[in-house]
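Quick one, T. Sequence first:
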Amino acid sequence: MSVTATTEPSGGSARRAVRPAPDQPKGGAARKKRRPPMGAPGIGWIAPGFILSVGLIYFCIVYSGYIATLDWDGMSPVRKSVGLDNFTNALTNKLFWGALRHTVIFYVCTFLGQTVIGFIFAALLQSKIKLAVVYKVLVFIPVVIAPAIMAPVHRIIFATDGTLNSFLRAIGLGHFAQPWLSQTSTALWVVILVQIWTSVGFGFILFFAAMGQIEPEVLEAARIDGAGNIRVLWSVVLPDVRGTVVVLAILNAIGSLKLFDFPYLLTAAGPAYSTDFLGTYIYRETAVMGHVGYAAALSLLLLVLAVGMSIIMSARGRERDKRKAVEADA
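Structure tokens:
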């Protein structure tokens, strides 16, 4: 604490009076200002998001939990409580397990196809090739095509007398012609194939952006050390875009669990439920069969699966990042 001196007249002589000076911040640092408490303006900013989250999301989840304990068609004033019977019926229903199995197969195949093909396209277009912009547009166009447009076109292509079979017969491969969408052995794979075609562009864009963040000096150093293109992609590029792979895994998992529009428009979950997914199964139980309580139980099971898969994948991604950071420090 510093002191200041003042001079006061007293009996014709000057007397020095010492008094304390106000405290100054040490080291010349400015004193931190206390943050004012959040008042009405702050509440006004967060109120819309809070109301939207609570009113349209969490309230609906809680209300769905209530409906899941009822035997109700959604219209009748009579609601019969059945406890947890809807959940028990779902877990013992072969159609539910079939839809879940198709969803898992769809997820694995589309994730692998989107990741591998998207990574290859991104790696190719990172090199200096002619008409790269045109290729980028062509790869990405299927992403923006609406399912309502794709489904009728692909029904024509894969019909028994459709474009694909006509082409096979024209080139002498008519024995490979199949009723692709009308038999259980091929319908699911057609849906998966078309979905891969439509989603590759999204994976390509993510990988292309991630590869653009890699320092050119790192790639050049790897080539100077004698690494070929495949080695560079495997040992340098792929580890740096591993975060993109995790993001694609999470997005594909969520998209597969809520898949409805394209398979329903293409095959209506047929034939013989061979293209039935969790989304189409829940829709059929709600809108067609009128089992609203049972469908609400299915929706909650679907929510648990989506949240659980997201948590697991996010945790594994964080573990990889920590392991990578430790290896980098070492």
